[in-house]
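Task: complex structure prediction.
Instruction: return structure tokens for all chains below.
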Amino acid sequence: MGASAGTPQGAALVTGASGGIGAAVAAALGGDHWPVGVCYRTHPERAQETLEAIERAGGSGIAIKVDVRDRAQLEGAFLALEERYGRVLVLVNNAGIRADDLALSLSDHDWSEVIDTNLSAAFAASRRALRGMLRARFGRIINIASVVGPRANAGQANYAAAKAGLIAMTRCIAVEVARRGITVNAIAPGLIETEMTADLDGSLLAAVPARRAGRPEEVAECARFLASPGASYITGTALFVDGGLSA
Amino acid sequence: MSSSLSSDDVYAGLREALIGLGAEQEQITPAATFEQLDVDSLDMVELAQIVEERFGVSIKGSDVAKIASLGEAAQWISDRA
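Output:
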């Protein structure tokens, strides 16, 4: 069933759900009684841990191996969830990679990989999800962007372009489908303690007014809220979860 | 998909879909245009999706421009089903 009475029956699909923010979001949505498609690319054992966290939270789900850049695999993930739980009514585009370098030496390969994974795949997944959401007259798309995008960070031209693009895409799709009860929002995390940020030096932390890194659960709570009936009139926005970094 | 689908069958399907999209029942006639029925661009996308699922016919944006009325749409779809 959906998140609560009055919410249509369907599933949540979370990409990049085997670790960090994605795993926390999947667990939060599972706790809100959304059956969750835990999509992962490289770490089946971590996807399994995410499933266990969902079950501890009282929810259920399935792990699905999918490289989000591959449209056929993405389609397969949707079909697997639809067959088991019904339409995908919550989509969290979280899968993301980094390939940092100064622009002068950033390769075409690293540019494209990051854009394809962090932006183009999110668009493809959104387009696919909207079909079912349109018919259900209900849907929640949550794009995990980044404070990097609106805020400059040397060495991340590709990442920042993808994340800023994600926020722009969020706003455009939001206005296209708002009259169908579908909301599309972005969450822009700042410095969050995950494997992806483990190698960053301390200079970014010094710039965070909260004087600490955030936890994945602090991002997940926002996703849970945006997916909930309580957030039904919020669409086309980006919620910054960054300890004041962008303030 | 069956090739014996009549335009009347398709029309009935379109009528049902349009009611689902919120069109006024009494305004739905074979001569009615999508514009008269207040079918907007998002409705058209959804209608095309329903037509594809139900009749196995895919409609592109360029096709829609050539179709003036609901009756013409039913004929166009049944010709291709």
